[in-house]
Specification:
about 625 residues; alpha/beta; seven-stranded mixed beta sheet
């Protein structure tokens, strides 16, 4: 016997699904399923995580979504790349016409927006509206429509089966087995009830019929399914699965090319801007080493087809500079001479030895990630420029998944279990104690609560921690696409006015190899700009990021004395304790200073050996001559 589960929601159907996408995929693979569909409600937020797990397990993954419309439930399943774009665009439409966290779908939306998508219809059980819906759906989805049958042992199976069979005969539709899966195993039943109570803002005891009757909405074993469903309904799941041949691997990301003049190629435009920037950076001419490095970087960028990405970042930086908004590239992009020539970064190769491969490497096959800081009070101008230049159809912020953390978990689970609100608040304010269930038991006994409630509460907390609660907007990570972004990933409204976010977070974007631009806000840039203003008004000296003295000995004398209060990156107690020991005398010394005062180098025992070798108290050795040029810096 073979079976494909075609109706399964993960915990990205917030406060409904009780299992992570990874758990669902791994369990389905273990049970021997032929395929698994992840069909979160009006959402594709969990499909990338399921895709990664499916790649690891070898289980075919079907992309889909569930919609609820006037008492009817619809399961849309993706058949090919065109179908995926249709579904993503439909989700975007439903989400964009509603407030954050909601969606609104109308029957006319289905008439012509899903011409390549398969549909499973779960009728409401009300004869008159079911007849009307069946008439429309059978016409709109000819040869692509099934009636889903869910045997969940709630006492209604026989009546439901014959009712659905009559509908199927009336509209000449095939029937298919579905599981309405909400959890990967029956052990999540208690958590599923808890999530339902949280969703309805009541306790588990007050749920009544809103609570599932049993744990049948799980991934069930094949022998169990064989007893429940007629063989024809089980076999039909394989017919549908065979028609669903799409994989997220097929998504091809195209960066917008409207930053390129029509008479030039992206490579030619990037070279032109780089050469123009190099003339400004080195008016007396390039050194041979810098010229060779520029050629090397341009060749790698062209080989990997990242020209439009660099041109887009350059365009944003040029806009900011035209508005006199201070900006500065950060991170590994500082290892690029091309970024320096495009005025994305201010780290000159004359100051430090650059390692371009830390930024881009053909061996790693990872997209570049350029983070650009802007003055925090004026970053919104840059964001609105992105929307104006590329439109909201082609640009949106990445999402951040807000998950349950200890304090929010204690409050929500405690309320769902009907615990005293004052007791819950006291627990949430003193979280250090509940690392162990025995300590939690003591807290419950102190509050007069006995029995198994403390252990049950503790187990639920351990399960719900890390569960997604809702989507929020990333601090500044933008996805910009050539084609409408809604054909790549659904877009929805953020809570902030005039903001839209995609349904994938940073990890999803990286997993699919998509390109993201981080438009970040930095208060220190605002402070520097104000300093420029004060110096100009009081001393008559015009300063810029480029003209700040790079090797001012008086400044380094102050730093060696740990006089760094208010200085970005080196004002913490740990940094101030290190400054007199390391005694920085140039910019790269500060790079080392900031990098070495981190948990990794400290716990790895790197600090003291480095200081001794820096002071000449220990001999400098290298594991291999091939990495000497990297380590000796």
């Amino acid at each position: 016997m073979a079976y494909a589960e075609l109706h399964c929601v993960s915990n990205f159907t917030f406060l409904r699904g009780a299992s992570h996408p990874r758990e669902l995929v791994e369990t389905a693979s273990t049970l021997g399923y032929t395929a698994l569909a992840i069909t979160d409600e009006c959402s594709l937020a969990g499909v990338v995580k399921a895709h990664v797990a499916a790649q690891n397990s070898g289980l075919p993954l079907i992309i889909g979504a569930e919609f609820q419309l006037q008492g009817q439930r619809l399961i849309a399943l993706v058949s090919n790349r065109q179908s995926y774009g249709e579904l993503s665009a439909l989700i975007t439409l439903a989400r964009r016409r509603s407030s954050k966290g909601e969606y609104r779908l109308e029957w006319p939306d289905l008439s012509d927006r899903l011409p390549n998508t398969l549909l499973i219809w779960l009728p409401s059980g009300d004869l008159e509206p079911d007849h009307e819906v069946g008439e429309h759906l059978s016409y709109w989805f000819k040869d692509r429509l099934w009636i889903g049958v869910e045997h969940l042992l709630d006492g209604n199976e026989t009546y439901q089966y014959y009712y659905y069979r009559n509908l199927a005969a009336l509209w000449q539709l095939p029937m298919v087995a579905c599981g309405d899966v909400h959890m990967h195993s029956k052990e999540r039943r208690a958590l599923q009830d808890t999530l339902t109570a949280i969703r309805h803002s009541c306790s588990v005891m007050e749920l009544g019929e809103r609570r599932f009757a049993n744990a049948e909405r799980r991934l069930r074993s094949l022998p169990h399914l064989e007893k429940l469903y007629p063989a024809t309904l089980l076999a039909e799941t394989l017919v549908i699965a065979k028609r669903c041949q799409f994989s997220l691997e097929e998504l091809r990301y195209e960066y917008p090319d409207n930053v390129v003049p029509s008479h030039l190629t992206p490579a030619e435009q990037l070279r032109l801007l780089t050469e123009q920037g190099a003339q400004k950076r080195w008016p007396n001419g390039l050194s041979a080493n810098v010229g060779q490095q520029i050629e090397y970087e341009l060749s790698i960028i062209e080989q990997l087809h990242y020209e439009c990405y660099f041109l887009t970042v350059q365009d944003l930086v040029a806009f900011a500079r035209s508005r006199k908004i201070l900006c500065q590239g950060r991170g590994s992009a500082a290892n690029s001479v091309v970024c320096y020539c495009l005025f994305i970064t201010e780290v000159s190769p004359d100051q430090v030895s650059l390692l371009f491969e830390r930024f881009i490497s053909t061996e790693r096959n990872e997209p570049p990630d350029i983070d650009v800081d802007f003055e925090h009070e004026r970053r919104e101008e840059v964001i609105q420029y992105i929307y104006q230049r590329y439109s909201r159809e082609h640009a949106a912020l990445a999402a951040t998944v807000i998950t349950y953390r200890p304090r929010s978990a204690v409050r929500d689970v405690g309320k769902a279990l009907g615990l005293d609100p004052l007791f819950i608040e006291q627990l949430s304010q003193s979280l250090s104690w509940w690392d162990r269930s025995v300590d939690l038991q003591a807290q419950f006994e102190k509050a007069g609560a006995r029995g198994h409630m403390a252990e049950h509460f503790y187990n639920l907390l351990q399960e719900i921690l890390g569960f997604p609660r809702h989507l929020s907007q990333h601090v500044g990570g933008f996805i910009i696409t050539k084609s409408p972004i809604s054909t790549l990933v659904p877009v929805e409204n953020a809570s902030m006015p005039e903001r839209t976010v995609i349904q994938w977070d940073k990890e999803d974007i990286e997993a699919l190899g998509l390109l993201k631009i981080d438009i970040l806000a930095l208060g220190m840039l605002t402070a520097i700009h104000r300093c420029f203003y004060l110096i100009r008004n009081h001393q008559g000296t015009e300063l810029s990021m480029q003209s700040i003295p790079k090797d001012d000995s008086a400044t380094y004398d102050m730093l060696c004395k740990a006089d760094s209060v208010g200085v970005f990156q080196i004002e913490s107690r740990a940094q101030m304790a290190m400054l007199p020991r390391l005694r920085p005398r140039n910019f790269y010394d500060l790079v080392i200073e900031i990098a070495i005062v981190r948990p990794g180098p400290i716990q790895g025992g790197m600090v003291h050996p480095y200081l001794k070798r820096r002071q000449g108290l220990e001999q400098v050795t290298y594991p291999h001559p091939d990495i000497k040029n990297v380590l000796e810096r």
